[in-house]
Design a protein that fits this description.
The chain has 408 residues and is α/β, with parallel strands linked by helices. It contains 13 helices and 11 strands. The strands form 2 sheets. Strands 9-8-7-6-3-2-1-11-10 form a 9-stranded parallel β-sheet. Strands 4-5 form a two-stranded antiparallel ribbon.
Length: 408
């Protein structure tokens, strides 16, 4: 009897154990599906904790891992689109259809724009404090990222770094100052007087990187920094950058920010790129003025994106008489110069892939100039390919692109 009674208890215990294990496995499997689904659709990144495991005391918190090695790189053929363009359902559908029917495969989207405003409802503390999301046009950022990925479109978040008049005005302690301590306002080429934030201030760095991390968390695959430089506006020579500027050059600071930002973002599983002036590739003078060192920045970035718009080069540059009239010649020369510069990085060391910005606008203010049509777009693309490169992005601030210049 005692043996039968014990056997009965053993059987009951085994049944209970099997039931518990099955329940946990089923629940855990379903959670796993949701977790993976969540990640693929861009609502989170893989660094988040396994909540179920921790709740049952099964797993311990794991250190952050660099997931970028598992990400599949994309050979980008993209366009820049403003946040206002993609906040419109009609324009969003138009661009998804256009990309599906052309060689395009990527969108560079404003997340923190030239005015310092953020395009979606951010939870970054400083953004909340200064209300830099108050006019955010994109109300469904996660849905947008899901839609783009479902259509095979590679999403890149454009984040403007040191040109941030809104932050400078809201937080004068972070702005570039005049000698008397007042906010310095430099005049841009358009004639606007604008305040910039101080690249020597690490609180500015951290704010930008927190915005970038949030962009990664909502599903962007790449963070692209723009205005990652010092201002060249009229009046900048009057700037007082503080005591640190006596110890470090502009190039030192921009390179240090680049290294710092890349390290911070790698745990988010995203690629990191930066826009730079095309002229810094072969002009040490321009490099020192803006603080962009092409080779040093390329040692940290995944992609370096020189803006080689033909209209932006002076007549005679690189032996090209009229760059705006000779887009193939000027871009080929600059991208060949880029390759030569990048080849100075020792073999085995990390070096960025060059991915140039191309011109899809007519620069009527340049003399002489020409209307940019499908022919000029194709000439620029051919120059990229003839320089043994495979990637490019088109720029038009108004988002009116020459679709006829794209392959089907």
């Amino acid at each position: 009897m005692a043996i039968q009674k014990n056997l009965k208890y053993i059987i009951i215990i085994i049944i209970i154990a099997i039931t518990v294990i099955t329940t946990v496995n089923l629940f855990g499997t379903e959670y796993g599906k949701n977790f993976l689904k969540f990640d693929i659709k861009g609502n989170t990144k893989m660094q988040q904790k396994v909540v179920l495991g921790e709740a049952f005391g099964i797993y311990e918190s794991q250190p952050e891992i660099n997931y970028i090695k598992y990400a599949k790189p994309v050979k980008v053929k993209g366009v820049f689109l403003s946040e206002w363009t993609l906040s419109s359902k009609e324009k969003r559908k138009y661009w998804i259809d256009t990309i599906n029917n052309t060689e395009l495969n990527a969108i560079v989207l404003n997340i923190k724009n030239d005015d310092g405003m953020i395009s979606f409802d951010s939870n970054v503390p400083l953004a909340k404090e200064i209300r830099s999301t108050k006019d955010a046009p994109i109300k469904d950022i996660r849905k947008l990222l899901i839609e783009l990925k479902e259509n095979g479109i590679y999403p890149i978040a454009r984040i403007v770094v040191f040109k941030d008049p809104y932050l400078a005005n809201q937080r004068p302690d972070l702005a570039i100052k005049n000698k008397d301590g007042s906010i310095l306002r430099v005049k841009s080429s358009s004639g606007r007087a604008e305040a910039w934030v101080n690249p020597y201030n690490k609180e500015v760095w951290d704010y930008v990187i927190e915005v970038a991390k949030e962009a990664a968390d909502v599903g962007f695959e790449e963070i692209q920094f723009d205005y990652i430089r010092f201002s060249t506006g009229r009046g900048i020579e009057l700037a007082d950058f503080g005591e640190l500027s006596k110890e470090k050059t502009k190039q030192d600071v921009i390179s240090e920010f680049t290294e710092y930002a890349v390290k911070q973002l790698k745990t988010k599983g995203v690629y990191v790129s930066a826009d730079v002036y095309g002229t810094i590739i072969n002009s040490s003078i321009d490099s020192k003025i803006v603080g962009q060192d092409y080779v040093e920045m390329s040692k940290y970035l995944d992609y370096i994106c020189p803006m080689v718009y033909p209209s932006h080069f002076a007549n005679g540059t690189m032996g090209v008489k009229y760059p705006d009239l000779q887009p193939y010649d000027i871009i080929l020369k600059y991208m060949q110069a880029s390759e030569a510069k990048l080849n100075t990085i020792a073999k085995g060391e990390h070096r960025a892939i060059a991915r140039p910005w191309l011109q899809d606008f007519t620069a009527s203010w340049v003399k002489p100039h020409q209307k940019y049509t499908a022919q000029q777009i194709r000439e620029q693309k051919k120059a990229v390919y003839d320089a043994n490169l495979e990637e490019w992005i088109l720029w038009d601030a108004n988002n009116r692109y020459t679709i006829d210049g794209l392959d089907k």
